[in-house]
Amino acid sequence: MRGRLATRVRVDGATNSQLGGGFRQRPGRAQNIGLLVAGATLVLGVLTAGQNVEAANSVAVTGSFGAASTSGTVTTLNAAPSTATGAGDLLVATIRDRTTSGVLSTVTAVTDTASNHWVQAVRGNEGKQADQEIWYVAGGKSIATSGGVTVTMSSGATIALTVLDITGAVASPLDKTASTGGSGTSGTTGTTASTSQSSELAVAAIGWNSKLTAIATAGDAGYTTPVVEQTTGGNVAGEMTASSVLSATGAQSYAATFSQSTSFTGVIATFEVGSGPPPTPTPTVTGSPTASGTPTPTITPTPTPTSSPPPGEPHIMVIMDENEEYSDIIGNPSAPYLNSLAAQYTSATNWYSIEHISGADYRDLVSGYDNQPGSTTTIVDELIKAGIPWKAWMESMPSNCYTGSQTPDYTYDAHHNPLHSFPNYKSYCNNLATEGVVPYPGASSMVSTLDSANPPDYVWLTPNTCDDMHADGMAGSPCPQIKYGSQALITAGDTWLQNNLGPVIASPWFAANGIIIITWDEGSSNLGLPGGTAPDNGGRIATLVISSNPANHGKVYTGPGDNFGTLRAIEEAYGVGLLGHSAGTSDGDLKPAFG
């Protein structure tokens, strides 16, 4: 077996080790790396800049650094680089934590001394004892050796952290992810969907709960060496992180074999990379080089909008979930991603739904009325008049401006399409270049639209009934989480938001004055905003505002309001008229939460 390596590493204390190993790429097939894990007390690995560099085209893992907690449980952990990270690089952090308290601890924030904006890519867990996550920064500012990266947890845990410094990624790099957890003598990350392009980089991590020594079986020379971080003390948590430059599209996975049964978690994420020259060595250019062998692309013009929006318009996305009270979301371990967003951005703690009629709640947020007296004007009518492009995506809707009340499997419900009942509805699909109520194409295609030459400034996104935390329990519904109860519904919706919102937060569209509002149509109580518009009994709801403006980060907004106040804030941001009850002062104003 040419190039096959086997390395046994036994660690008995404060020794740092790196374990040989890596991915083997086969075009169009899932990748796996086998790891045999046996038993030890501490394994720490640091890949310094210039060592074990993996490169293909413009992408390279130029270094890594990490840390592990040494005793007891902690809520923060810091790791410092031995060499400053590169300006403009992609930074990827893998985090493994374990707790024996019976309450799952999850990452609430990743920060660094360069003030980079970290975004969660994927997470997985094993019950309520172990959590594994990948976070990243695209186009990061350099982190000096005097600084570092800090992970903050929702509660005390033992923590292992590894950070990779990667050159060559695109501005909005996250592509595919997978995660899993379980127990046994083997572990895996799960398998991603097929990658979107051939030039990508995969980062994977598998964590465990036992004191382990590792035996790693590597592929051919040139693949990365996995880095191991493992905590000390009785509550052991360890992880192995590896990466691979991909050269063909295909599903990706990462696997480990353990010599003894243990609980494990696994996560994997792929990142798109550019096709420019490698970062090193720096070429010397003489004269004007002439490209050879590269065909000149044929550029298809993008349709011109009927009118150009004013410069500097905000990019606002509204996502409405279903039927959860504030206390069902905030502080609930079944919604770790939403709670991480609440901690990292702004959470409105005194916000309410207007009534317990789902369709009316949606109409409240686009027209200022519940259509009972009725209104013929919506926020998108105002945007069209102002020449501001917009898009409304409906998951599982069969066709553009679909007029049916629901699909046979009940995954699409017209009551959750806020524009469906208005008289101009069919005309909203007359100019799909700049507007439209259309089927949701998935996160990757959505981000491509957002980052295109003519993106929508205003976006509405409705998850289907399997993903909106409600899951209409009609006969024939394909939502498997229905039979597992309300917490499973919340977790399913939380996971959907993580998978679909993470790429948006990392996109140039969001970086350019982006604001994402996550709210709920109604709660489960009859609470209402004191002095708000009648019937004023829809329950207290969670409302999160995720903004690219740093003034929005890590805040709590205590001002009172309801969904009419949310509409008012959006109208004020675009400078259009105030519709219906949004024009009054009794329903609050969410605008201060925008930052």
Distance between the termini: 59 Å
Considering DSSP H and I runs of 4 or more, what fraction of the residues is helical?
10-25%
Overall radius of gyration: 25 Å
On the 0 to 100 scale, the average pLDDT is: 79
Proportion of β residues?
25-35%
Largest sheet: 8 strands, mixed
Q: Uncertain runs with pLDDT below 50, 5 residues or more?
A: 1-57, 216-223, 276-311
Structural class by SSE content: mainly beta
State the helix count: 8
Number of strands: 26
Outline: globular
Q: What does this 3D model show about the protein?
A:
This protein has about 600 residues and is mainly beta. Helix content is about 15%, strand content about 30%. The chain contains eight helices and 26 strands. The strands form four sheets. Strands 1, 2, 11, 12, 13, 14, 15 and 16 form an eight-stranded mixed β-sheet that branches. A hairpin with a 7-residue loop joins strand 14 (about 225-230) and strand 15. Helix 5 (about 445-450) runs parallel beside helix 6. It starts with a strand and ends in a 21-residue tail after the last helix. Mean pLDDT is about 80; it is low at about 1-55, about 215-225 and about 275-310.
Topology summary:
Layout: E1 5-9, E2 35-37, E3 54-56, E4 59-68, E5 74-79, E6 89-98, E7 107-112, E8 119-126, E9 130-140, E10 149-167, E11 169-188, E12 200-208, E13 214-218, E14 227-230, E15 238-246, E16 255-273, E17 315-321, H1 326-329, H2 336-344, E18 346-348, E19 351-352, H3 358-367, H4 379-386, E20 390-394, E21 437-439, H5 443-450, E22 458-462, H6 486-505, H7 508-511, E23 514-520, E24 543-547, E25 555-557, E26 561-562, H8 563-574
Parallel strand pairs: 2-16, 17-22, 17-23, 18-25, 19-26, 20-21, 20-22
Antiparallel strand pairs: 1-13, 2-13, 3-4, 4-10, 5-10, 6-9, 6-10, 7-10, 8-9, 11-16, 12-15, 12-16, 14-15, 18-24, 23-24
Helix pairs in contact: 3-8, 5-6
